[in-house]
């Protein structure tokens, strides 16, 4: 399911750390990896030459940190608008997963500061793993999946199972936040039941957590309480097909669940939506 990974390299090393953790998983260890560094085109000729040289050095250092065979790595250095280039390269490479760093900017500040990760998630249909600059990257011993019965959530469950089935001693945390009702009993919650059935069939350790209230804050709270190493959430594609290239300002201004979690979660967040 994850055969090609694209990493947008910025020189901080967090994304490379995250990739090394993923590469410890047998189902991911042979994935082809593309390292991408983008130099913004708004520079004079002399300054551009210097930035391209710096970009090459950043990519070289990134390669050195990866615990991976050289024949699995492809390196790309490009000029242009980072948010557009990342999407273009992801399509060119057929990436199954994009890994990017994030400053955790929210709402209007993210728009004004030209948040690359936020725009890329808006414009790509590919799963995207965001690693905030201020978090500690850990081995994946506890993977949390937010479930709500939607196709996007089912896809996230499939991703979680794909990763967890080859990790010794892993615990899956299945979470359902119902905003309109009392907290359901974890043993009878119909949203969690299919996930529990799969985990039992595969012999995977699991824990169920239910809550009520606003999904974004509750999911972040639970992720912190259970000390999750990776949070996987679905994000339904609310853009009409005729506007796939148009950024959703409602989401950019922070009025969506995925945006709240992207900013506030204290762990890496894998956001995914079904393609359609």
CATH homologous superfamily classification of the largest domain: HUPs
- Which shape, going by the Cα principal axes? globular
Number of strands: 10
Any idea of the CATH topology of the largest domain?
Answer: Rossmann fold
Q: Beta-strand percentage?
A: 15-25%
Q: Determine the N-to-C terminus distance.
A: 18 Å
Assembly type: single chain
Structural class: alpha/beta
What is the architecture of the largest domain at the second tier of CATH? 3-Layer(aba) Sandwich
Count of domains: 2
Q: In a nutshell, what does this entry contain?
A:
The protein has ten helices and ten strands.
Describe what you observe in this structure:
The protein is an alpha/beta fold. The chain has 2 domains: 4-132, HUPs (Rossmann fold), CATH 3.40.50.620; 142-272, HUPs (Rossmann fold, 3-Layer(aba) Sandwich). The protein is built from 10 helices and 10 strands. It has helices at residues 14-22, 45-65, 82-93, 107-112, 116-123, 151-164, 193-202, 215-225, 249-252, 257-264, and strands at 4-8, 32-39, 73-79, 97-102, 128-132, 142-146, 171-178, 205-212, 230-234, 269-272. A 10-stranded mixed beta sheet has the order 3-2-1-4-5-10-9-6-7-8, with helices on both faces. Strand 6, helix 6 (151-164) and strand 7 (171-178) form a beta-alpha-beta unit. It starts with a strand and ends with a strand. 39% of the residues are buried. The model is unreliable at 106-113 and 238-254 (pLDDT under 50).
């Amino acid at each position: 399911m994850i055969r090609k990974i694209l990493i947008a390299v910025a020189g901080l090393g967090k994304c490379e750390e995250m990739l090394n953790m993923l590469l410890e998983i047998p189902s991911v260890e042979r994935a082809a990896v593309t390292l991408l560094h983008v130099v913004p085109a708004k520079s004079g000729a002399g300054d551009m030459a210097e930035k391209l040289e710096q970009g090459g050095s950043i990519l070289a250092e990134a390669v050195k940190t990866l615990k991976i065979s050289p024949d699995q790595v492809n390196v790309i250095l490009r000029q242009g608008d980072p948010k557009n280039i990342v999407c273009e390269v992801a399509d060119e490479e057929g990436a199954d997963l994009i890994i990017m760093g994030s400053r955790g900017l929210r709402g209007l500040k993210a728009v004004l500061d030209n948040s690359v990760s936020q725009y890329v998630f808006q414009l790509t249909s590919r799963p995207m793993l965001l690693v905030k600059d201020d978090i500690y990257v850990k081995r994946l011993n506890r993977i949390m999946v937010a479930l709500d019965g939607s196709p996007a959530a089912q896809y996230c469950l499939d991703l979680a199972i794909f990763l967890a089935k080859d990790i010794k001693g892993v615990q899956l945390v299945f979470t359902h936040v119902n905003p309109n009702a009392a907290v359901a009993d974890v043993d009878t919650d119909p949203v969690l039941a299919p996930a529990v059935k799969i985990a039992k069939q595969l012999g995977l350790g699991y824990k169920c957590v239910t809550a009520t209230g606003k999904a974004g804050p509750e999911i972040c709270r639970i992720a912190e309480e259970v000390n999750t190493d990776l949070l996987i959430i679905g994000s339904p594609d609310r853009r009409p097909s005729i506007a796939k290239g148009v950024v959703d300002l409602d989401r950019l201004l922070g009025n969506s669940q995925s945006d709240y979690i992207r900013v506030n979660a204290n762990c890496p967040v894998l956001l995914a939506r079904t393609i359609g």
